[in-house]
Amino acid sequence: MERPVVENKVAESLNNMPKGSILFVDDFLNFGNSESIKKALFRLKEKGKLVRLAHGIYLYPKIDIDLGVLYPSAEEIAVAIAKRDKARIIPTGIQALNKLGLSTQIPLKVVFLTDGAARTINIGKRTITFKRTGPKNLLVSGEICGLVIQALKSIGQENIEDPVIERLIELLKKEKPEVVLHDAKLAPAWINKILMRSI
Questions:
Q1: Rounded CA gap, 141 and 179, in Å?
Q2: Strand partners, 110
Q3: CA 152 to each of CA 112, 156, 177, 185: distance values in angstroms, whole numbers, following the listed order
Q4: C-beta of residue 164 within 8 angstroms of C-beta of residue 102
Q5: What is the three-state SS of 153-166?
Q6: What is the block-wise mean pLDDT of the chain (199 residues), using blocks of 10 residues?
Q7: 182: helix, coil or strand?
């Protein structure tokens, strides 16, 4: 008897959620135990109400007439996982460069530094890796500062070119000087110098 009841409750609760929501078993635990929620989500997937992104991660899909299911970006999925786990994350590598407009490449493998659990999640052909890091790397208070620090680490001191530095300094000017000052202290010496040039 419990199965349809739990499934119906989950299905009803979807009506109050925006299309495109990323969902986890934990979101529905007030309707039953995790096993019954897993089964309910699986059945709703079978009925086409949900799309399974990865183990235990579902999408309440937004459908476009021409494009079909509109899938969330790797970053949107990573942010949803971090929110669920109450963890902090910072994009690294190509993802950081991409967000700063320094790369047009959409990476299939994205890596985030986190203070949560280290893991890799496969979503179709894409992978999201959460790499555990020390608190220092996550203490940056400015979003642009955090991205710039990770982008520069990814490029490397020997490979950084002046036009890129100038572009980053322009972007850093959008941050408050006190934020740059705070975050520069957390960066390696050569990156600290670049950040300080924006003040």
A1: 7
A2: 128
A3: 15, 6, 19, 15
A4: yes
A5: HHHCCCCCCHHHHH
A6: 77 93 95 93 95 94 92 93 94 91 86 94 92 91 95 93 93 95 95 95
A7: helix
Q: What's the token pair of residue 14?
A: 């979807």
Of residues 73, 84, 58, the one with CA closest to residue 110: 73
- pTM (2 decimals)? 0.85
Question: 62: which residues sit within 8 A by CB, 6+ positions away?
Answer: 19, 20, 69, 70
pLDDT at 1: 40
Report how many helices (DSSP H) and strands (DSSP E) the chain contains, helices first. 8, 9
pLDDT value, residue 60: 97
Q: Which amino acid is at 188?
A: P
Q: Identify the residue whose tokens are 């009803």.
A: 12
Cα–Cα distance, 143 to 138 (Å, whole number): 11
Q: What is the pLDDT of residue 3?
A: 52
Length of the chain: 199
What domains lie within the chain, and their CATH numbers? 2-68 (1.10.10.10), 75-89+106-135 (no CATH), 139-196 (no CATH)
pLDDT score of 107: 81
d(CA 50, CA 105): 29
CA 114, CA 199: separation in Å to the nearest integer? 28
Query: How many CB atoms neighbour CB 160 within 10 A?
Result: 16
Structure tokens at 119: 């893991």
The helix-helix angle for 2-14 and 34-46 (nearest 10°) equals 70
